[in-house]
Amino acid sequence: MNSDPGVMEHFPAPLSAAESDALIERIEAEFDARGHGLWAIELADEGELAGFAGLSLVDMDVPFAPAIEVGWRLARRHWGGGIATEAAGAALVFGFDELAVSEIVSFTAVANGRSRAVMERLGMRHDPAADFAHPELESDHALSAHVLYRIDRPGWRRAGGSGR
What we know:
- This protein is α+β, with helices and mostly antiparallel strands.
- The protein is 30% helix and 27% strand.
- It is built from four helices and seven strands; from the N terminus they run αβββαβαβββα.
- The strands form two sheets. Strands 4, 5, 6 and 7 form a four-stranded antiparallel beta sheet that branches. Strands 1-2-3 form a three-stranded antiparallel beta sheet.
- Strand 1 (38-43) and strand 2 form a beta hairpin.
- The radius of gyration is 15 Å and the shape is globular.
- The two termini are 27 Å apart.
- 24% of the residues are buried.
């Protein structure tokens, strides 16, 4: 999944096997440190790994950090079936009900319409005043410009408490 150029279209580059392994190690370290992170999404019917979704700490140099981010990544064959929205919605339930956070954010490259649509289905709202240049990319990089979406506990409850 991480080596698929289509899946990684809105990231600087596909990941090598070693980079993908390092990502898994960082995800596991976040679980160890914080008790939450990005969950593997396994399809119950097939036992197949479809991707991941969950919550992570935003600790990069951006004005809205520190923050809790909801994020996801799916293998291309699982796009369009509602899996990302369902899994990210479960992460919002966990964040608001179990972790009692007051706000959850999500962000992506401006051109990533698929992820922006998921954010909107979750009840998240674009905060144009908080859009930013990704600090880990050169300012002239095609993916530098990012949009920020937010949802707070009252907004989440208005959205149905599950993002739907």
